[in-house]
Amino acid sequence: MIEVRDLHMHFGGFRAVDGASLTIEKGSITGLIGPNGAGKTSLFNCIAGVLTPTSGQVMFDGTDITGLKPHELFHMGLLRTFQIAHEFSTMTVRENLMMVPSDQSGETLWNAWFGRKQIALEERALAKKADEVLEFLTITHIADEKAGNISGGQKKLLELGRTMMVDAKMVFLDEVGAGVNRTLLYTIGDAIKRLNEERGYTFCMIEHDMDFIKQLCDPVIVMAEGKVLAEGGASEIMKNEQVIEAYLGTGLKNKPKKETAQ
Question: What residues does the ABC transporter domain cover (predicted)?
Fold first, then answer.
């Protein structure tokens, strides 16, 4: 579904992404891991249109999307969430969901004056869909809460819910588990798995919680220093000497024998 070809993202002399190439298969939940500064978020931002890559190519369902803006990708079904949730804090959780679909009748001044009946019909349909999303995510109890007042984990669920208000095909999740308690993390993981299995969503997720990665992701792609270092199943990746070296600074094979024996 996504093919990244020799992607580079340079900031002056700093190469945040340095020739990364990878494929995200349709219907997968792909994990993207690596030490801090590996280039994971910069890669996400290049794919999702937040940054224009210095060079390279990004393909989505066979279409070249390199350099397209987030709103253009949104209409193609490619969405991303952020490590820090971006909610409308003074609006309710339900209203946050209702804001997502584009080209609503109420967005034009003419309809605001002369199309009120159409706007009311659309709002009822959007409210119904939002309530279905809230039920799917098991957060109906916070539907009327101001989004700024809910917990960090609930905000992550709200961001996931936004992708359900449109016809998302590919969703990039940036540290969806960061700062989330284990109970809510389980709820988020269950929702991701159900969206994948029941609704055909394809996911790629940056995450540092390896237990969460092992629970959800296959395959797992490892980045280091702006490049793709390894790819495979979670258990296989955790035993990879290059991955150990990237995370810990030295591989087990390079340690003195008497040190490893202790």
Answer: 2-250
